[in-house]
Specification:
Layout (H helix, E strand, L loop, with lengths): L7 E5 L6 H11 L3 E3 L2 E3 L13 E3 L2 H9 L3 E8 L2 E6 H9 L3 E5 L2 H11 L3 E7 L3 H11 L4 H15 L7 E4 L3 H16 L3
Parallel strand pairs: 1-7, 1-8, 2-7, 3-4, 8-9
Antiparallel strand pairs: 3-6, 5-6
The structure holds adenosine-5'-diphosphate and guanosine-5'-monophosphate.
Adenosine-5'-diphosphate binds next to helix 1, helix 5 and helix 7.
């Protein structure tokens, strides 16, 4: 099986920067795109559904996927929480004639970019400041204090990866960020 989609979009950023919000907007704007559902060993949050936000696996099931080489890439994004892109997702997109959108951490994002080169647009979402990011994460209220701290502990390190991405969106005013994201996709897909 050839795993090469002709175009793909990678969206990476620290947790709370606005990836999910921006990706959802892009998916509802461009019928050409489809969300690549990752596998994860983290616990399901309230409101999430298996197979929609993620394929929720036990750590053993996740390890088996690694062993069986069923993941295009994977990372232990937070201590004890594994995330990975199933090869089968990319295949699903290709057979459905859709361009995959990957919401992945900064390292996973750059790994996918390395695999696909110019066929992939790697977008980094930057929050206006660390303080605003923390405030948004607390307002989102989806994480326990422990999970929140794990996320905040990584932010400064993750922000240093920005320079390696193709494009950067500063997510200050949401309307502006969504518009900029749309513009980038139009340009990349040749729809402009
Ligand atoms: P990520 O997927 O990167 O973790 P989210 O998209 O979940 O981030 O955004 C984190 C929180 O911040 C969510 O509650 C979201 O509604 C909110 N948010 C996103 N962008 C903005 C913005 N520009 N201004 C204010 N709140 C925002
Ligand atoms: P969350 O637990 O908030 O849903 O996601 C935590 C982090 O894991 C985010 O940065 C998200 O982009 C990243 N992530 C989600 N899926 C994958 C994946 O398949 N691979 C990698 N490397 N990171 C992922």
């Amino acid at each position: 099986m050839n795993h090469t989609a002709s175009r793909m979009i990678i969206v990476s950023a620290p947790s709370g920067a606005g990836k999910t919000t921006i990706v959802k907007h892009l998916l509802s704007t461009f019928p050409q795109l489809a969300f690549s559902v990752s596998a994860t060993s983290r616990k399901m949050r309230e409101g999430e559904k298996d197979g929609r936000e993620y394929y929720f696996l036990t750590s053993d099931e996740f390890r088996l996927m690694i062993e069986q080489q069923k993941l295009l890439e994977w990372q232990e994004v937070y201590p004890g929480s594994y995330y990975g892109t199933p090869v089968s997702e990319v295949e699903r997109m290709i057979s459905g004639h859709r361009y995959p959108v990957f919401d992945v951490d900064v390292v996973g994002g750059l790994n996918i970019k390395k695999l696909y080169g110019d066929a992939a647009l790697a977008v980094f979402i930057r929050p206006p400041s660390y303080e605003i990011l923390e405030k948004r994460l607390r307002l989102r209220a989806t994480d326990s204090e422990e999970s929140l701290q794990k996320r905040l502990d990584k932010v400064k390190w993750e922000l240093t990866f920005e320079q390696h991405f193709d494009r950067v969106i500063v997510n200050d005013k949401l309307e502006d960020a969504l518009q900029q994201a749309e513009m980038l996709i139009r340009e990349f897909l040749g729809l402009a």
